[in-house]
Amino acid sequence: MKKRFAFILIAIVAAICSCKKDPIISNDKNVGISRVTYYPTFTIAGENLISIIKGATFTDPGVKATAGGADVPVNTTGAVDANAVGLYTLTYTATNADGYSSSASRIVFVIPSAELPGVDLSGNYDAVPVGATPGPATTTKVAQGVYSTTNCWGNSGAVIPAYFICTDGNSIIVPTQGSPYGSLESTAPGTYIGGLITWSIDLIDQGNLVRVKKWQKQ
Questions:
Q1: Cα separation of 204 and 133, whole Å?
Q2: Among 32, 42, 96, 196, which is most exposed with the fewest C-beta within 10 angstroms?
Q3: Distances from the Cα of 156 to the Cα of 128, 138, 147, 211, angstroms
Q4: What is the bridge-based pairing of β-strands 70-72 and 63-67?
Q5: Is the pLDDT of residue 47 over 80?
């Protein structure tokens, strides 16, 4: 019995000693048995928001994509019609060696004319009637003749950010664009008079819900 016990003990010790652990692999390509994949990242030349004057030639400043330090090809979708005032989105897509994709975008605005000197509609606004819900809104110049507002709707419970164009300090264009409530656009040129913005907004994907909205600069 003692001999049998000793034999079993020796066998157990031998089994334990023979179970040599595999080294843990950790490098830029593998962590253990898992393969590391690097999603493409983008370096966009120039600005993410660009404005050009109607009729001018648009040349994409370019974009570069890398994945794990290696360059990967970039596919561009979208186009800019330099002869039509509006908002155009260029989407850049790249795919790594493992088949995983990433994307980035640039917005190009075609404005009707060069911006007149001194024109700047930036500032804080409140919906008219003052104190209407929601309000206030902040307007920021993002490119020559182009602005973003944190809310173009107002006078209701919907907060809708938007881009708009104004180059002469008076006439406003809200180009067709996406929003949290679907596509929107202005049905007619808006105005900027004495610090008061007035425009007619059409929520296209909401059954063409059209409202005239007013925002007073504070």
A1: 22
A2: 32
A3: 11, 17, 22, 11
A4: antiparallel
A5: yes
